[in-house]
Amino acid sequence: MKCTVDGVPYLSMVTIMWRSTMANTQQFRNSIKIQRCREDLVEGLDDVSVKVIVDCLLTKLFITHENKDVIQAEKTGQDKARELLDLIYRKVESQDKVKKSDLFDEFVECLRKYNSCLASTVEMADDSVPNKALNIDDILVRVKDINLDEKILKCILMNVSSGWEHVATELGVSHVKLSIAKQNSSDVDIQMFEVFKAWRRIQPSETNALSKLLEVFDRCSYECKTDLNKILESVTSPHKEKIR
Question: Where are the bilayer-spanning segments (predicted)?
C-alpha cells in the first residue's frame, strides 16, 4: 500500500518540498549577488540601459506600467537604477518561489543585452551568506532607553550607504515623499535625513522609534548596506554612562 498525503504519494511530496526549499535558498543567494553588485549596477546603468531592462521586464509581465512610470519619473540614470533595483527586491519578496528565480534570470538576461560584462559580474558574484556579527535582539536591549533625536539620527545615517530608500519604504514612506525629497536636494545625505526626520515626527510618543528603525535596517540588511556594529557604537557613545 502506497503512503499518500492528501492523495499525493509521500515520496512525491518530499520531492516537492525539497525543490521548494532549494528554489527559496537559491533566490536568497541571488538577492545577495545583486546586493553585492549594487554599486556596480548603479554606476553601470544609464537612462538607456534602464529603459531597455524596464521594457524587457514589462513585456514579460514582471512589472507593471505603473512601476515603469515611477522609475522613469526619477531624474538621473543612477536614481532610475536604484529605483529599478528596489523594485526588483520588492517583486522578489512578493512572488512565489518559481517566479522569484524567473525574475532574477530575466533581469540578468535583460542586463546582458545592454552590458554582457555587467551581467557576468552579477552571475559570478559571491553568493555566500555574510556573517552576522550582532544579534538584533541584543542591540534593541542596549538602545531601548535612547531617544531617536536628530543627533542620533545623523549618527545612524552616517553609517548608511545605498539602498536607504528600501528602508524608508518598509517604514511606510511613500514613493511620492521620496521623490519630493530628491527634488528638493541633490545631496543624498540631505535626502536621507529629511525623509527619516519626517518619518520620526509622525511616530506616536509611546513608540520606540529607534528600535523600530534599527529593526527595519536589520531586516533590510541585504537591500541597504549598513554596519550595525558601527551604528550601535555611534548611538550609544553619548549614553555610555546611562547604559552601564
Answer: none
